[in-house]
Amino acid sequence: MSAETPVQSAGTFARLRLRFRDWRGTRPFWAGLFTILGGVPIAYFPYATLKLGTMSLTMATTAGAGSLIIGVLLITLGLTMWFQQATRVFAGVAAIILALVSLVVSNIGGFLIGFLLSMLGGALAVAWVPGKSEETRKGRRAAGKGPKGDGAVEPSSEGPAGETGGTHAPFGTGDDGTAEGVRPEAHNGGYRVG
Questions:
Q1: pTM for this one?
Q2: Secondary structure (H, E, C), 2-21
Q3: Where is this region: Disordered (predicted)?
């Protein structure tokens, strides 16, 4: 052991954390997580046995098989949201429908815990949109290839004060290059914010 060993392990942890962060940022991570967490109580509660001292309470009902199927499907949909981002809208809508069906079939949707988590996960999956990574944005700026469109800042050979070089925004745009009165869409981890 040397004095550099903790630094190396911290570097490995930081590297793994950043890799996980990059992986998480390219998919509807929270939608999948909430959907998986919602499927667990829906599938678990009908088969659970609660022990209170010497007395045992069993929640077995005739809808146990239906609850198990709904729970497993919700867990599968959550994994699909993580690994097949192209089907996120279908998976989100299916999770919402299964959460609603679980209210009737599975002990009030896993005592409302599974229902609420699955509804939240399904809604997040439908709302998630893939965002542009920082590296893509930095690469475009460095190469001089900015965004195209109405609100784009266009290069000019003559600036607003007559000096050569620089960029200017087209007439009728705000300071940030967007059209006046139009607010750019904000993104927060891929979920629509504004």
A1: 0.62
A2: CCCHHHHHHHHHHHHHHHHH
A3: 136-194
pLDDT for 41-68, tens place per residue? 998 888 777 788 888 777 666 667 888 8
- Say if residues 35 and 18 touch (Cβ distance below 8 Å): no
Q: How far apart are CA 77 and CA 90, in angstroms?
A: 9
Question: Is the distance from CB of 165 to CB of 144 less than 8 angstroms?
Answer: no
Q: Select from 61, 62, 79, 70 the least CA-distant residue to 43.
A: 70
Q: Apex CA 53: angle with CA 48 and CA 54, to 5°? A: 85
Q: Is residue 41 exposed (0-12), middle (13-18) or buried (19+ Cβ within 10 Å)? A: buried
Task: For residues 62 and 68, give the distance between their C-alpha atoms in angstroms, rounded to a whole number.
Answer: 11
Give first-to-last CA distance, the chain, whole Å. 52
Task: Confirm if 46 and 67 have CB atoms less than 8 A apart.
Answer: yes
In tens, the pLDDT along 13-44 reads: 899 999 999 999 899 999 999 999 999 999 88
Half-sphere exposure (Cβ direction) of 47: Cα atoms closer than 13 Å: 12
